[in-house]
Amino acid sequence: MSDVLMDDKKVTHPTESPDQDKPMNLSALADFFFEVGMLKKTPRSGFQFLGTGRESVADHSFRVAVIGFCLARLVDHPDPFRVVCLCLFHDLPEARTGDMNYVNKQYVQVDERKATAHLAAALPFGDELEALLDEYRSRQTEASRLAHDADQLDLILELKQQKDLGNTYAQEWMRYALERLHTDMGRKLAEQILKTDWTAWWFDGNDHWWV
């Protein structure tokens, strides 16, 4: 299996071929794909406390992956696709645990490592998934910090949209999300997001569409 140099150490590249020592278990892969599909049906539970907005974990993860790729390119990270993989899989255990918001976490301890180990056990590349999620949780590599910032920037985008639509609580939530950013580029993007109306990409300057 090939390695790439990342953050002064060698790590397994997430897009390489499965370990040849493990059998290709297509049945396990089919099960895994159905499990991943649960993320499309798993709600992001924080919105019930915000009072407006709604999205699934899969909705969230897609834009996080897009943001992660952009962040990686903006800072010239040597492996933007590793950042994408960290973003794409960062909430994968929630197919089993559900999404626990900050209130839930005051009372419930979620064993994400156990969930990850169980979902990865039969997969030919299960070790890679576990390594990716361990790296994400560690926040010790530049890639993992970029992925965490992408996670928060997606939340900030959603909160800005809800604020623009009239939810006065969204501003206070944004303050905490901003404090959780790790990188200068993440903070710069957040600053621009806060200055941008959520409809500007299609509404501003397009009066001719309406006449």
Features:
11 helices, globular, Hypothetical protein af1432, disordered N terminus, 4% strand, 56% helix, HD_domain, two-stranded antiparallel ribbon, mainly alpha, 211 residues, 5'-deoxynucleotidase activity
Tell me about this structure.
By secondary structure, this protein is mostly helical. The chain has a single domain (38-197), classed as Hypothetical protein af1432. Helices cover 56% and strands 4% of the residues. It has 11 helices and 2 strands, in the order ββααααααααααα. Strands 1-2 form a two-stranded antiparallel sheet. Helix 8 runs antiparallel to helix 9 (170-179) and helix 8 packs parallel to helix 10 (184-195). The longest helix has 23 residues, at 142-164.
Describe the structure in brief:
The protein has 211 residues and is mainly α. The chain has helices at 26-37, 47-50, 57-74, 80-89, 94-97, 112-120, 126-138, 142-164, 170-179, 184-195, 200-203, and strands spanning 3-6, 9-12. Helix content is 56%, strand content 4%.
